[in-house]
Amino acid sequence: MDEKGIGDMESALAETRYMLKRWQLSASATGYIWIKPTVDRLSPEELAGFLALLRRACESQQPRMIMFDFHEVQIVGHQWTTVESLLLDLARSMHARCRVVSSPQRPVSAFFVYQDAAEFGAAGPPQSAIPAA
Asked: Which sequence spans correspond to the domains of the chain?
């Protein structure tokens, strides 16, 4: 292996080690991924970086459902609108539904992110059942 190949491999391994320190992941053959941060605080920028890696690593038909478990993490600055926007972009680009679960002490402790309104109507409760942000 030449120097460039070794450098690329070292870079990929460093990125992998960083990700594994900050995220727990579990994937099923049926297209379900469970994701949980291992840190106490998470910025929207860190989430965006992780979502970019996830998008690159997944095939076009997988995953169908992604669950983000934010029970034990504080989004820095309480920037949930930014987080929701990032997750909506992910759902649209990967054609996956995202379920987000957070602490029961927050105003909304769980919600789904759908690709579009048609999918929401086919798969979810009436729109009036979703709390306003």
From this structure: 36-129
Cα separation, 20 vs 6, whole angstroms: 21
107 pLDDT higher than 70: no
- H helix intervals, the chain: 3-22, 44-57, 80-94, 117-123
Do residues 47 and 30 make contact, with C-beta atoms less than 8 angstroms apart? no
Adjacent-strand bridge partners of 36: 24
48 contacts 76 by C-beta, under 8 angstroms? no
Q: What is the mean pLDDT of residues 26-34?
A: 86
Burial of 119 (0-12, 13-18, 19+ CB in 10 A): middle
pLDDT band at 31 (very low <50, low <70, confident <90, very high): confident
Q: Mean pLDDT over all residues of the chain?
A: 77
- pTM: predicted TM-score of the whole model, two decimal places: 0.61
Give CA–CA dist 29/128, Å, rounded: 34
